[in-house]
Amino acid sequence: MTGSRGRTDGDHGGDRTTLRVPGTPCWVSAMVHDLTATREFYGALFGWEFRPGPQQLGPYVRALLGGREVAGIGQLPQDRHLPVAWTPYFASDDVDRTAEAVRLCGGTVGVGPLDAAEAGRMAIASDPAGAVFGIWQASAHLGTALSGAPGAPVWNELLTYDAAGVAAFYETAFGHTPKAVPDAGTDRVTLHIDGRPVAGLRGLGDALPRDRGPHWVTYFGTADVDAAVERVAGLGGRVLEPARESERGRMAVVADPEGARFALVRGATG
Fold first, then answer.
1. Which residues form the VOC domain (predicted)?
2. Beta-carbon contacts of residue 14 (< 8 Å; ≥ 6 apart)
3. Distance CA 91, CA 270 (A)
């Protein structure tokens, strides 16, 4: 449980300059093995520029588009041979209280809660099925300052075994209202805050890749999905799902050179 949701903050997209409503995805970050090479990849793909961020967990930079922060990238310690992934952070009024709610609901808190200098307070946790996410209590750093634009986060979707089952965890821990997506033959749930969709859950059952397990996928906007897919391949990334039309618009699923999966999308994402 994350406390009051009385704030409004431009969660519908565009510029964001105030605190997020608790439970809303507010930031996305990746921990990688080669920070320099990863910066070069995303700089070439999205036009990101970078500046230093809090160093509590090692070297860390924030990515900017037009001077506005859109994502973070940190470097893993050399002895940590962990899979690389993009991790969404959910806003909280009180990280410590939310972390305790995560534990009580069957999740696990792997890092924190801890202070990230003057930026805010954070924790990294996983839901009962093992999908990793972050919790962010903002102070100086309010989160993603631009959304919905090319090169910025647009949507987050959890790929898991049983969407309906894990939805109860997010409902209790973050105050989300889960709503089943009326699409025959699929296990899909949308998480809502104050009546707005903020994230999606997709249950794949045995079709979930066993080498990944349950995991969150961040969608980044692009003006031209097909051209972006070509850039990914040319920059050393991989195309996991070729460009196709979907209910969210034209999209593709790709991976950066270290294997972090993400989606490219053009069009609506609700």
1. 24-138, 152-267
2. 146, 147, 148, 149
3. 19
